[in-house]
Amino acid sequence: MKTVQKTASILLSLFFLVACGKSSIKEENKAVETKLSLSDQQMKFNGITLSTLEEKEFAPLVYAYGKVEVPPQNKTLITAKFGGFVKKIHVLDGMHIKKGTTLIEIEDPSILEMQQSYLENQSSMEYLKSEFERQELLSQQDATSKKAFQQAKANYLNAKARQTGLRSKLNLAGVNVANINEDNIQTTVVLKAPFDGIITKVHLETGAYIHPQDQLMELIDTQHTHAELAVYEKDIHLLAENQKLSIQFNTKEEIVTGKIYLIGHDLSPEKTIKVHGHFDKESADIIPGAFFKATVQTASKKFLALPAHAVINNKGKNIIFMKEKKEKGQHFFKAIEVTIIAQNVDFIAVSFENIELLKNKKFVVEGAYELFSKMVDE
To answer: Please, where are the H alpha helices in the chain?
Structure first.
């Protein structure tokens, strides 16, 4: 008896399992089913009219994000030619400065020593030059040995070479040798801005010891900023040089305009390609590193399109309805997911799989929302 009950229980479980499985499959098919049918009367009642895809001219807008950049040659890292202690910092991160502005003052004992060596060598040179000229005159009169003349010449030329080397080093350090003498030795080295620009990346503090290879700060020339856009691969074919750019910054209400200057060829892991744009007007308000969103006005092209109200947006997917056939007084429709290429007030240019094969089919151009409502209800 228990065996019979157990067998019956297993069979009953299998029955429910199969039934549920069929129900699940049925529900799944219903979820993906996109075919509908309407009678002639329903077509008329819902105001549904049909037409083929039409060729319409569009100037598609391409949307992109980007960042303000400057060419590498318009950035410079401020470094000291010699090590030393930071005595004073005259600028802050983000400051606009002019060429020649003092950036940093550095105290370096080796600079003092070089100035002393320069002055000492300068004094020695006066004597060595005089001795060389005297030995040269005596040599012409055969009144001195050739060795003495050559030694005097070598001493003078060595001192002259040393003086040239010291002068170059001091000039590199920012010391004007014309201004130094026994009573005026420069105790600090001043680093100045080589051009107008914005100070960024300040990496030092007063009292710190810096080395010659240390990057103290960066100076950016804002006269040559450009827009670096990241455009998706699917939109690149729509772009061309000199197309107009409309750029919107988060910090500015007004639109900044520009033009496409160069289109890249390297595809990033994010499936984007760099597009280089130039601003129509340079402005100090356009700050390197600032992010923006851009719209590109592309050239007019013809695309297959439907009236705007024929395209339904459902949870981020765009749908149109194509008539497949009419049979026994019933009109059969299929919902097709499409990609919007371009749009204006009246029409939307669409693309979908096998569009060239299906372009002469009839599509719902009036009553699409009514048909969509019926699809949702079912």
So the answer is: 2-32, 40-45, 109-140, 146-172, 355-358, 368-377
Q: Give yes or no for residue 24 having a pLDDT over 80.
A: no
Whether the Cβ atoms of residue 321 and residue 367 lie closer than 8 Å to each other: no
The pTM of this model reads: 0.54
Give 301-319 pLDDT, tens digit per residue. Answer: 899 999 999 999 988 899 9
Report the DSSP beta bridge partners of residue 349: 305, 342
Q: What is the architecture of the domain spanning 34-56+303-377? A: Beta Barrel (2.40)
Rg (CA), the chain: 41
Three-state DSSP at 237 gives helix
Crossing angle of helices 146-172 and 109-140, in 10° steps, is 150
**C-alpha to C-alpha distances, 299 to 70, 104, 231, 260, nearest whole angstrom:** 28, 51, 16, 13
User: In whole angstroms, what is the distance from residue 26 CA to residue 349 CA?
Assistant: 35
Nearest Cα neighbor of 365 from 347, 345, 341 is: 347
Type of residue numbered 198: I
> Under a CB-based contact definition with an 8 Å cutoff, are residues 298 and 61 in contact?
yes
Sign of the torsion formed by the C-alpha atoms of 246, 249, 254 and 256: negative
**Of residues 263, 256, 260, 262, the one with CA closest to residue 232:** 263
Query: How many C-beta neighbours within 10 Å does residue 116 have?
Result: 13
Domain locations along the chain = 34-56+303-377, 62-73+221-301, 109-172
pLDDT for the residue numbered 312: 94
- Give CA separation, 208 vs 71, 211, 217, in Å: 31, 10, 14
The CATH class of 109-172 is mainly alpha
For residues 233 and 230, what is the distance between their CA atoms, to the nearest angstrom? 9
